[in-house]
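Worked example 2:
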Amino acid sequence: MIKKEQRYNVRTFKVQLPSGGRYWTVLDSELDVVPAADRYLRELRFGRDRAESTVKSYAGGVVLFLRWCLRTGRDWTTAATEMGLFMTWLKYTPAEDQDVVCGPGATPVRGPKRINRVLVATRGFLTFAVAQGEAPQWVLGVLYELADDRDLPEVARGEDARLAHRLRARHQLHEPETAVDRASDEEVVALFIACRSARDRLIVLLLARAGLRRGEVTGLRRSDLHLLPDSRSLGCEVQGAHLHIVRRENSNGAWAKSRYTRWVPVDFLVVRSIDQYLLERQDCPAAAESDFLLVNLFQQPLGSPVTPDALNELFEILCARAGITRSITPHKCRHAFASNLADSGAALDEIQKLLGHVSPSSSQIYLHPSKDRLRAAVERVPTPRTLIEGVR
C-alpha cells in the first residue's frame, strides 16, 4: 500500500536527450512521466525555444498545481474553477508537502511574487491542455477575461463570430514595489579583492562591469572575445573591445537566456582582466584544448568548463572571505551593473540592449533614480529672477 505522502509526491525531473538537449518534466509518485505536463514542457523548451532555467521554473509551478489537485481530490482539467483556493493553498502550504492547518495569524510561506509565477506556469499549462483537447474549452474563460468579437461592429466581425481574444488574467496578486536587490559598489570591490586568482577576478568583472548572466559568463567561448580596436579582420563590424553572447548548447549546462545574439562592449578593466587570466590559464596544459573561456584550473577535472552552479559556490566563498554578512549572488552583481547604468543617465533602450532584455519593461525596474539624481534634477530647473527677488 502506498503511503499518503508518497501518493502526492509529484516532482520535477531533468531529462537529458540522446541529442544533448535538456529539459525538465514532471514525474508522479510511481516515477512515471505525467504525459500532459511532459508535452507542455517539451513544447516550451523545444517548440518555443525557452531557456532550460525557465522550463525548470514552469515545471515547478505545474508540480505545485498537480500536487494541490491530488491532495484535494480535484480533477486537474477542471480545477481552474477554484483557483482562489489554490492561491490560498500556495500561500500557506510549505514545500515539504505536509498536512497544514491554517488559522488566524498563520505565517505565509510564499509571497505574492512567487505565487504569481506559479499562476503563470499553471495558466500556460491549462491553456496548452485546452489547445490539445485535454481540458474543456470553457477553462479559458475561467483563467482569462475573454473578448467576444460579436461585440464588435458588424463591419468588423467575421462570418462566424466567436470568442477569440484573451485579455488579462483573472487571478493575480498585487506585488508591492520593492527596490532592486543589487550589490553595492563597495560590496563588488570587496568581492574583487577577496579573489585569489585572475580567473575569479574576471568572473566578478564580467558580472558587475558587463552585466552578464551567470549562464552567459560560463557559456563564453574564446572565439566570442573581440578585444581589438578594429575587429573587421575577424569578420566583425563592431568597433572597440566587446564580447558576443550566443545561445548554444553547452556541455556544462550554461545557457544564454535570450535567443538573440548580442554584443556587449567591455571597458579597459575587463580587457586587462582577460589578459591576466589568459596568462594564468597557460600554466594549465589541460585547458589548452578547450574553447570555453572559463575552465577549471585548480581542481579536477582540470580544463573542463566552469559550470553555472560553480559561480554560486564561488560567491558564497568570496562573501565569507570578504566578511560580507548578507548573500551576494552573481545576479545581484548584474543588477549592480544595470543600476549603475541607470544612475549614469543611460536611456531605457540602452539598458535593454546591454542586458539582453526582450521587453523594455524588464529594464524599467532599474530606472529608480538615486536621491542624489533626484536632487540634481530639481536643481537643474531654471529659476526666474522675479521668483528669486520675491523671496528675498
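The chain has a mean pLDDT of 85. The first helix runs from residue 4 to 7.
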